[in-house]
Amino acid sequence: MNSIFNYFDKFLPLSEEARKLVLSTVLLVNVSKGTVLVNQGKANTDFYIIKKGIARGYYLQNGIEVTSTLWQENEVFGDVITYISLLPATKSYQVLEDSVLYKINIARFRALFEINLEIANMARIMVEKYIMKQENEKKRDRDMTASERFQVFITERPELIHRVKSIHIASFLTMTPETFSRVHARWTRKNS
Predict the structure, then answer these.
(1) pLDDT means per 10 residues in the chain (192 residues)?
(2) How far is residue 46's CA from residue 33's CA, in Å, rounded to a whole number?
(3) What is the DSSP track for the chain?
(4) How many Å apart are CA 86 and CA 68, to the nearest integer?
(5) Which of these, 131, 103, 97, 116, lies nearest to 44 by C-alpha position?
(6) Which residues contact 155 (CB under 8 A, 6 or more apart)?
(7) Residue 88, exposed/middle/buried by CB under 10 A (0-12, 13-18, 19+)?
(8) pTM for the complete prediction?
(9) Which of 30, 104, 125, 191 is the most buried (most CB within 10 A)?
(10) Sheet holding 55-61, edge to edge
(11) Distance from first CA to last CA of the chain, Å, rounded?
């Protein structure tokens, strides 16, 4: 299970003692494609790090699923509002292919903050970087055209274009499926 530290070490490498404590909160799970792990509006007790697979975060708007986030290997997902405040999840979280995940119980993980300063600092840095990433992406994407948003996506996450349904990518990029299809077709012709 040490490969979980491929994720955590990006923020703060932990001592052997801290690693053992973190591992006490982790369970390796196999999850089938399509499984919703967290439901919008429900209590959420865990967060996940993807060892193998992909996932999306989505919410319902007028009865339509809006994909707001996509994750892949060596990325964390779960509801940050739940993680910070223990309030119900603001989105649902679903795996999009058969996946292997590190499931981490929020309460047990947060309890480690009281006994190990390394873990508390690592978790603080994780949340700070997550929030900064989200804010920077919102600012960057606000004034971009559909083509520009697609170009950023294909540059930053090229493998997802083949692993995620176009309807989810279109929603994630805040475009209609028709616009996505046109932009993707132009990009494919240009790069053939």
Answers:
(1) 81 94 96 95 91 95 92 89 83 96 95 96 92 84 87 92 94 92 90 80
(2) 19
(3) -GGGHHHHTTT-PPPHHHHHHHHTTEEEEEE-TT-EEE-TTS---EEEEEEE--EEEEEEETTEEEEEEEE-TT-EES-HHHHHH-PPPSSEEEESS-EEEEEEEHHHHHHGGGT-HHHHHHHHHHHHHHHHHHHHHHHHHHT--HHHHHHHHHHH-TTHHHHS-HHHHHHHTT--HHHHHHHHHHHHHHT-
(4) 21
(5) 103
(6) none
(7) middle
(8) 0.89
(9) 104
(10) 36-38, 92-95, 55-61, 64-71
(11) 41
- Which tokens is 89 given? 């999840």
- 3-class SS letters over 10-66: CCCCCCHHHHHHHHCCEEEEEECCCCEEECCCCCCCEEEEEEECCEEEEEEECCEEE
CA distance 50 to 15: 22
CA distances from 183 to 87, 145, 157 (A): 38, 11, 16
Residue 158 and residue 188: Cα distance in Å, rounded? 12
